[in-house]
């Protein structure tokens, strides 16, 4: 079984980052011993170099391999350059053995809140997904902006500007999981055979209503996908359970 922890929207900064909550989350996730951690953006609140320096020290506390994509807040104030220097590539592909592929996409634009994938990255994505179909790999896409609107988040302004084209590619290739963040609200949609999962904020104080800081955990075996929602320092529960796609 493959275990993946999905965290998002840390917002490391002076005002919007709760260090105590973050440290509790680190302890919980390290105890789970996941195979990997996927971080879907907004590592910082303003994209400042000092915020990224601080964030890298925090991220080093996780024991599992961690793979991140940038969010709209990370792309502010030249943060899109700092991300590559201190965090890593903004778009990437990871293959675990011969069975599972994770693709990270950069949906951010410098100093803008809106999300956009763009034609070059879209073409690259389609090529990678063609290989996943040929090799019958379990496929996961990670990006910051959501490809479909999230309930309980008010007026929709920040879904991907090219969401329709991206969503068509994801569903026609029967991508197994699409992971995103951005709205600080956990949610699951299932579109055809593709499960689209949004993570809440791991440790930001910018929370909606009574929603708690949280993270998702995915247990993936040959037969099914279990998705658990973990409230940091609180309860966890089964968020969704789905059979694996049959190719």
What features would you describe in this structure?
The chain has five helices and twelve strands. With 247 residues, it is α/β, with parallel strands linked by helices. It has a single domain (2-243), classed as Purple Acid Phosphatase, chain A, domain 2 (4-Layer Sandwich). The strands form two sheets. The protein has a six-stranded mixed beta sheet with strand order 3-2-1-10-11-12, with no helix packed on it. Strands 4-5-6-7-9-8 form a six-stranded mixed beta sheet, covered by helices on one side. Helix 1 (19-32) links the parallel strand 1 (2-7) and strand 2. The longest helix has 17 residues, at 119-135. The radius of gyration is 16 Å and the shape is globular. The mean pLDDT is 94.
Poorly predicted runs are: none
Structural class: alpha/beta
- Going by CATH, the architecture would be 4-Layer Sandwich
Largest sheet: 6 strands, mixed
| β-strand number | 12
The end-to-end span amounts to: 19 Å
Helix content: 10-25%
Order of helices and strands: EHEHEHEEHEHEEEEEE
Task: Detail the topology: elements first, then pairings.
Layout: E1 2-7, H1 19-32, E2 36-40, H2 49-59, E3 66-69, H3 79-86, E4 92-96, E5 100-104, H4 119-135, E6 138-142, H5 163-172, E7 177-180, E8 187-191, E9 194-198, E10 214-220, E11 224-231, E12 236-243
Parallel strand pairs: 1-2, 2-3, 5-6, 6-7, 7-9
Antiparallel strand pairs: 1-10, 4-5, 8-9, 10-11, 11-12
Helix pairs in contact: 2-3
Identify the notable features of this structure and list them briefly:
247 residues; alpha/beta; Purple Acid Phosphatase, chain A, domain 2; 6-stranded mixed beta sheet; 5 helices
């Amino acid at each position: 079984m493959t275990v993946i922890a999905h965290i998002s929207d840390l917002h490391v900064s002076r005002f919007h980052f709760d260090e105590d909550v973050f440290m509790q989350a680190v302890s919980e996730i390290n105890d789970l011993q996941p195979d990997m951690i996927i971080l879907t953006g907004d590592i910082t609140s303003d994209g400042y170099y000092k915020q990224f320096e601080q964030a890298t020290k925090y991220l080093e506390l996780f024991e599992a391999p961690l793979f991140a994509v940038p969010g709209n807040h990370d792309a502010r104030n030249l943060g899109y350059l700092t991300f590559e220097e201190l965090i890593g590539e903004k778009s990437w592909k990871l293959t675990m053995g011969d069975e599972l592929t994770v693709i990270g996409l950069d949906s951010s634009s410098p100093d803008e809140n809106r999300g956009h994938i763009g034609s070059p990255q879209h073409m690259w994505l389609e090529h990678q997904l063609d290989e996943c179909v040929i090799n019958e790999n379990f496929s996961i896409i990670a990006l910051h902006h959501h490809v479909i609107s999230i309930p309980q988040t008010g007026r929709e302004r920040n879904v991907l500007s090219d969401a329709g084209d991206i969503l068509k590619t994801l569903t026609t290739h029967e991508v197994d999981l699409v992971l995103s963040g951005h709205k600080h609200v956990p949610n699951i949609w299932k579109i055809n055979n593709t499960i689209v999962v949004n993570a809440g904020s791991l440790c930001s104080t910018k929370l909606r209503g009574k929603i708690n800081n949280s993270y998702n955990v995915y247990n993936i075996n040959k037969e099914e996908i279990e998705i658990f929602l973990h409230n940091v320092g609180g309860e966890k529960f089964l968020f969704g359970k789905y059979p694996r796609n049959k190719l």
